[in-house]
Amino acid sequence: MTQYRVLPGPEAYFTPSAARMGIVLPEPGEAHIEGTIVPEEKAMEYAARKLLDAKNPTLHPGPLVLWNWNEKAAKKAKAIKILAETIPARIIPMPDYRPKYPKINPDVEINPNHPNLTIWHNKEDVCLFVGVHCHQANLSLKIIRGGTNCFTIAMCAQAGHEDAMLSFRDATADKILRLAEWVSKLKGARFIRPAEEVTEDDRHSDNVFAKLADGGG
Amino acid sequence: MANELSEVQRSLIGKQNKKGQTYTDPHYLFFEAPRTPAFFTGSEVIKEAIRRASVDVMVAYPITPQSEAAALIGELYAEGYVADYMRGENEFAVMSQCAGAAFGGARVFTTTAGPGTMRAFENFPMWVGARLPIQVIVTCRGINSPLSIQPDTLEIYFLLGTGMLIWHAETAQDFFDWILQAYIVAEQPDVHLPIAVCCDGFFVTHTKDTVMLTPPDMCLPPYDPYRSPVPCMDMETPPVRMMRDPFVMKSNYISYMTHASWQEETRGACERSRKHTIPMIGGLIETENVDAEILIVASGTAVSQGREAIRLLEDEGMRVGLVKIKSLRPFPFEEIREATKHAKHIFVPEFNVIGWLAQEIRAAVPDNHRVIAGPHVAGGMTMPAEVIAEEIQKTLGRHVTSLAGRGS
């Protein structure tokens, strides 16, 4: 059992991967807070409180939710907007992963190769990553932990991120809305969920890949 | 295992591919499906595993002792079990072409050996950095000059630092099971790394063994590239601008930090593979009688020779335990520390001149003066069980008749 905790930095000149320090990812239905596995609902409350207590809470949506490339992405994007309005939090996107020189404009974007610039510039004390490919999210989260004191939250659609101080896994639009609901609850406000819209496209949204069943393998 | 398949992969379970094979839940395929015995060489076993692996692309190039396996996969292509198959110009080209196919979202397979591994080498850490879950079979052979085609595991030493997952098969059965299981572990979104499934050339590839095969009409669900931790290079799925660029090419602190974090992340991904690998291959190690004061710790066919040596020593009234290391990356540090905690002497027989496994074990265990690096053979020499037994007896101060002295 590791004694290592994933805490706000600045941690180190050379930030270690939390996975190499012995932090393990949560199983479905769980999340982690600073490396400790907890039930997802507990992490929801903790994340909501962190976002509410922050001076400059910021959401960093990535390419997986910035483009309307299937219905799930569109639903998540709408949920993120609702979350941002509920907190309220600023949205600064990570539109792509290309290194940009001489430097990015930290008012309008965050980049995985130097995310600290955006965190510093906007004095972000709590941020949430969502819709960023896992490798790029982990890259960013390590650099942020290394060089800033920002508390990082990951709303990951896959297995989660040990390099965030708090991470959810298997993120869906519904899970993002649940976080917004928790924020409302802690504020003592009423939260109204958007009406569900199920379209024909929605049912087939991930079926790009199913074509392989006919030809590949 | 958590979240083993994506939603799309799960939706394909029970459906058939164009060869009439049924996409089968991997857990059922590996642990519950009926098995039938077959008497095959290791090369034939590679073919049978790939028949069931839903491989999209195989790139081949001849080099002994993997040439037969590479040619047999060509037969699978001709039969329609592998979607695409080509010969590279050399091993460097092969591994580069594998990268191209994997960048494009294909499940990729290749095989190599010895000097071929070395010639291809630049690509292995590149595969890791690009998070490409390619599977390469390494049928180890000599890499030294003068040229040797004989079994020798020195090339694994070089692979250890690449960041790839590395498993070392003892038998053809390991090989059959692990080739299929390797894809499931390597393609997990939190792992998503290339994997080298290694064996000792000739000893495994060219000898026949009874192998329990899963039904040929069951196969793995295909790879789902949309779970990749980096964007899949799919020209039909916007935004195409997400394609991976050349990395940061500047000389400043933050570009160094980016590269450092990138490397940390890929090593972290290797660590994450533990929880997927352990249930898949039954632990990173296997042990027998580890309460004994004398242990043999080995990987590959040195394990088989160790088993025989243990039998010989039992006849002499000596009790010796065995630790079989299955995964070299991730390395089973904790498992080895636990397994060796009672041992006074830890012998590490190896088929290479430098004793890389002994180095790894020395780094893993306390009181590492207990680790005896040997016996070693190299250059294709066999390692008779008697040689291992003799090394153990000599170290313990027992009088033995040397095998090397026989016939003099």
Please provide a brief summary of the model:
By secondary structure, chain A is an alpha/beta fold. Chain A is 36% helix and 13% strand.
Distance between the termini of chain A: 41 Å
In round numbers, the mean pLDDT of chain B is 92
Helix/strand class of chain B: alpha/beta
Helix/strand order of chain A, N-terminal first: EEHEHHEHEHEEHHH
**How would you write the strand order of the largest sheet of chain A?**
2-1-7-6-5-3-4
What is the 3D form of chain A? globular
Number of separate strands of chain B: 16
With strands numbered from the N-terminus, the spatial order across the biggest sheet of chain B is: 4-3-5-6-8-7-14
Largest sheet of chain A: 7 strands, mixed
Furnish the topology, listing elements before pairings.
The complex is a heterodimer of chains A (217) and B (408).
Chain A (H helix, E strand, L loop, with lengths): L29 E4 L2 E4 H14 L3 E5 L1 H4 L4 H16 L3 E2 L23 H7 L4 E5 L3 H14 L3 E5 L10 E3 L4 H15 L12 H4 L8 H4 L2
Parallel strand pairs in A: 3-4, 3-5, 5-6, 6-7
Antiparallel strand pairs in A: 1-2, 1-7
Helix pairs in contact in A: 1-6, 3-6
Chain B lengths: L6 H6 L9 E2 L2 H6 L4 E6 H10 L5 E4 L6 H13 L4 E4 L3 H13 L4 E5 L1 H6 L3 H7 L5 E6 L13 H6 L5 E4 L3 H15 L8 E6 L7 E6 L4 E2 L33 H29 L3 E4 L5 E5 L2 H15 L4 E6 L1 E3 L3 H7 L5 E3 L8 H9 L6 E2 L12 H11 L13
Parallel strand pairs in B: 1-10, 3-4, 3-5, 5-6, 6-8, 7-8, 12-13, 12-15, 15-16
Antiparallel strand pairs in B: 2-9, 7-14, 11-13
